Fold Peroxisomal biogenesis factor 11.
Amino acid sequence: MDKLIVFSNKTEGRDKFCKVLQYGSRMLKALLSNPVTKERLNGLFTASRDARKMFRLWKSVHEYDAMVKLLQNVGIDNPQRALQFLSRLAFFFYWLFDNLAILSAIKFIKRDTQKLTKSAMTCWFIALIFTLINLLRNLVINLSKDAKLKRPSTDSNAQSTKQTLDALKGARTQIYINLVKTLGDMIPAAGGAQIALKIFGKNFSEKWIGLGGLVSALISCYQAWP
């Protein structure tokens, strides 16, 4: 119970819980046929989606801070710094357009909500592309180090080698989890940005968008759990 309270009190925890509701209800309303149930699920989807947008107001400030700290971080190599910076920059504009979209939806400002939402989703998709490239790069580096350590060697410090291999395995597991989460998010991002429509001539269906977002949300909840 204590962990549940700590989790629910976290802003990130509340956001990801609402994300589960948002995409879970979106997927279910596409799968079920009862019109009353579909209407209720659509109401839950809309409410949780808009609630998440309110949670994320001014989140661009956090991204700006992350970019400044990233440029000052000397513990990572230049390719990784560049990929992370580009990802955070795209997320900066994602939050910015997302904030403007919800402010427009509640009539606080007068802007085209649909255009702002599409711009936000496009920036989200770009951010995920850079995130995906960085994850794949880290995976290749991890596997290369793992293979090198497993080669026959005269090194007598077997305990140290085993600990390093275990650490690499743990890091690799996290990379795989983040890959699945990123790929899950790419489905609703591509759908909202209409990228799938441009490439395939057909957008993702509601159930696939719901499934992708739900998988990502569940992984995020698992990672945020105290």
The radius of gyration is 20 Å. Residues 58-193 form one domain.
